[in-house]
Amino acid sequence: MSSQQQTFSLWQQTSLITSTLIGVGVLTLPRTTSAILYEAGWMSPLFGSIVAFVSVWMIAKLSQHFPGMTFIEYSTIVWGAKKNSRMGKWLSLPWIILYLGFMYLSTAIVSRIFGEVVVTSVLLDTPLEVIIITMFLLAFILSLHDLEVVARINELLLPMILFPLLFIAFASFQKAEWNNLLPLFRASGSSLIKGAYEAIYSFSGYEIMLIFFAYAHENQSKVRAGFYGIAMGMFVYTLIVVAGIVVFGYEELQRVAWPTLELVKTTQVPGLILERLESAFLAVWVTAVFTTVANAYYAVVYGLRQLFNRGLGFQRLISAIMFIPLYYIALWPQNIVEMFRASSYLGIYSLILNLGIPALYLTMLFFRGVGRKQKERNADG
Amino acid sequence: MSQFWKAWQKRKDTLQEKALHHHTDRSMENISDIELSLVIDENIMMIEKGLGDCDDLVIRRFRDKRDTDCAIVFLDGMVDRNIISEFIITYMTNPQIPVDLPASNELESTDGLRQVIRNVLSGTAVLMRNGESKAYLNNTRGWDRRSVDEPQTESVVRGPRDGFCETLCVNSALIRFRLKDPNLRVRHMVIGQRTQTDIYVMYIEGIAHPPMVQEVLARMEKINVDSILESGYIEQLIQDRRWSPFPQIQNTERPDKVVANLLEGKVGILVDGTPFALIAPAVFSQFYQSPEDYYERFYIATLLRFIRIISISIALLLPSLYIAFSAFHPEMIPSRLVIAMAAGRSTVPFPSLVEALFMELAIEILREASVRLPGPIGPTIGIVGALVVGEAAVSAGLVSPVMVIIVAVTTIGSFASPSYSAAIAIRMLRFPVMLLAGMFGLYGIMLFLIVILIHLSSLKSFGVPYMSPLSPLNLRGMKDLFIRAPHHLLRTRPTMFHVHDEIRMREDEKP
């Protein structure tokens, strides 16, 4: 009876992508983009999303060649000879490690950034370690469950992520100075590319679909799901950057660490039921960070489980073990400056990884013609 | 590693197998399963021996026209004496015992001792004759029963007033009376080695998903317990996740609710001896949906659903929000209110967490006490507890006035849920969330909510995800989730229970 739910619907895939990519990036996005593009900062999520679109398209295409298989599983087919599957396993190992390693690191860094925000702005007396550990605990609890739970929890939480953001963006328009956006098209081509690059890291997260696309309900829905997911992220990001620029202006934006949080502080609830909103916003924001951290962590743990070809029990065990190094990685950067630097390194890593791996695999497929054979086999069976 | 793994799995399997095959009739084991003898005295002795010292066992001996020794055996109080007298009179005038004797409503014959004793225990009068190794079982069951009454726990303003009672056949008749569908299937089961409780499993063939029905029946057959005293036993033994705080099977006292759910493709379970029927599978919407929603016009039904959702959220979160706001985020409260709150709290010696826990505990005690108290005193205690103690606690400076309001609203909110057992889950979860709010403020509340949501989305009731149709998203099911769409838009049944006949209303002709 349970077999009919192991597949993800189009909406579940879309919400997986959107909720994973909306994470801590949105808290700093107005500052980082307007640092390069000034008043045209809102263009950078638009241009950054192009890269994400291309990448997610490649990931979806790759997954379409191997329906029902995750990145871990089809890697051995892509790299291996038909008879000698052991060789494929060894040749694909570096790519798998690169991929899982990236998600592992980004789990750590995202929860570190989130912990930093919470500690500096809401829970002033709480140690950073406690916030990080509780966030990991949540990810751990999720990784105890089956795959379908991940899809369902994302589906449930997506409205809880989108609504506060949209509310904040639209509510802050009350204080908007729309002239801050002018002049409209002053940015040069090179600065546009640089600005787009700034936004790319906030789009990363969709690479979890290298694993989760395997469980798509229909093979054809993958590309659409990817596009919808990225498009929703792009819309939210653009809206937030526009709100940041029109409320503060780009000069002021450079002087605040967490511009989106400042945006929240300026908004007022009509009727004055709550006087200040930033604590409430950060509380709701936990869901956004949770979906980013937990989805990535789940993908890592699930990938390891498939790599060793084991069951759910192994997944639970490994997720408990992987915890401990994760904690130390999260506490590695000594201060907020180092943390931002680490995060920008991860941005480069994500760019190379998300474009490189799918492109590499697709070229491999093209030259070896593996995918076609695989498709035929599926058609027969 | 994997060796160990396999060994462990194997051991688990063998243990499970053992448990499955260990299905013996423990209490009936003492009685030897022998054939009845030709001599009536021997038979009576065997029955007396089998039942031990039973002073309510009535053995009425008499001689019929043909001068054969006869005996009627039954348990006092379990039978309708009128039927027995009538039976004896008819028998005396015509001792042929045709199986279709008109005076008796059901007449069967048997020749096994165990069968005889089992029937005597369930209220059958057994007729035996000398020289025959047979016993005639005459269904004379008739004990005093409570009449059909208004349901105590689920009252509605508009809707039928009859509720289930303790007798199985009356309860199933209440359902039949509303649902004259020839496709209604009733499966009889006897569960409980000592209590031998009769159970009906009901579903509508052609609507209910057959594998789901099979699953329910299979799980019920696996039950191997000595007693079923209430449907709660079955609920707890066949639910999917035994450690979950959320009820995965719905219970109700209302026949109309059972019928409505049968029509949605669910399975109803009626248990003898309790007015609470079970409905499986259950989803999260049981927390705030009431049968009344469908009887009233849809505007008010939708509004009431929203009010119930709000009150459930209040029951779960209000005390912890108070703790979080007053201890961690006072800047969020409007400044005038925060001054008033601070003035109220100035005499309170405890942190707000202790204050809230203390008050919530007090209200739980009050609630429990008023359930136990005899009828007329109950409300008095409510007034004394709520008004006098609350007022005195405030003026003594033990709690702040705001806290009293919060506790009162929380308690009232928890009563707004139409299902009592669903409200219990909310009531319990209030305490951990208060503790987390005391530790991390709003962040703690969110942590808790996410954990609960993870748990809820992993829950399944007989293969149906607990949060459906919200997740997995089913737009058609959304019409009857938060809002209650008008009936002419609810033309199909909700699909999440894998119903077979989807159509509820074919053509909608405007009047």
TrEMBL record, chain B:
The keyword Nucleotidyltransferase does not apply. InterPro entries: Spore_Ger (IPR004995), UPF0353/GerABKA_families (IPR050768). Pfam families: GerA. GO terms for biological process: spore germination. One of its GO terms (cellular component) is membrane. It comes from Brevibacillus parabrevis. This is Spore germination protein. Keywords: Membrane, Transmembrane, Transmembrane helix. PANTHER family: LEUCINE ZIPPER PROTEIN 4, SPORE GERMINATION PROTEIN. The chain crosses the membrane at residues 306-328, 378-398, 404-426, 433-456. Belongs to the GerABKA family. The keyword Transferase does not apply. The lineage of its organism: Bacteria, Bacillati, Bacillota, Bacilli, Bacillales.
